[in-house]
Amino acid sequence: MSRTAPGPEFWDLIRLHTGDLADVRPTPRGFSSDLTALVESEKGRFFVKAMANRPGGRRDSIVRERLINPAVQPISPALRWHTENDAWVVLGFEAVEGRTSDFAPDSPDLPAIVGVIDRIGELGLPPVAHDWPETRWNRFAAHPADVSLFQGEALLHTDINPSNLLVGDGNTWAVDWSWPTRGAAFIDPACLVVQLIAAGHSVESAESCASDCAAWARADPKAIDAFAAATSRMHRAFAERRPGVQWLGAMGEAARSWAAHRGVEG
């Protein structure tokens, strides 16, 4: 078995839940985790996600992911165990057989992608999320009054992207619930629209896909317009802050084209 970083004390911490380890296969960590790995062990196969136990937003995100998991099953794999010490916070999820989804215009994954976004919209707001209002778009709103259009009582994932939607045989999962919030139900389908445009869809095609989500169909078009403008400003700010990062530039251009299509200034 190959054990990459972290050190032996980490594996000792999780051994109570895993038993003896047979294999550890690190997976891409993205921006939010210090370790993600598929673990084969005496007590089963787990997807393990860990964060350094330091105060701040990143620790808060993994705590939110633990707290929200009971409310988002079976859309998300079940959390089987969690543990922490002074150095680490660790989550052990059921390991599912799935692959990263394909958002391209001709992708056979599109019905499953839209379907899982629609299923998220059907979830009720659990009590634990009541005090997690969505605020990230507020400072990018064109007018102060637009902020109220982003508020609501829906449970939101918000980090919609191909890596966070896994497609398997007969099932699709939304993973990485690192920052679930309470807000307007159309926001997750709207986030999907920007991702689809960035993946090569026309704006019309992307919005057509989103229209199969009940939350999008029920939304006030003026609220979507305001959100498109705020999203364009948000992604432009991100791209300007890190001009050498290609994917940020692509998201900025996708959001700009969406705002232009809806006739709003982003």
Automatic annotation (TrEMBL):
SUPFAM superfamilies: Protein kinase-like (PK-like). This is Protein kinase. InterPro entries: Kinase-like_dom_sf. It comes from the Bacteria.
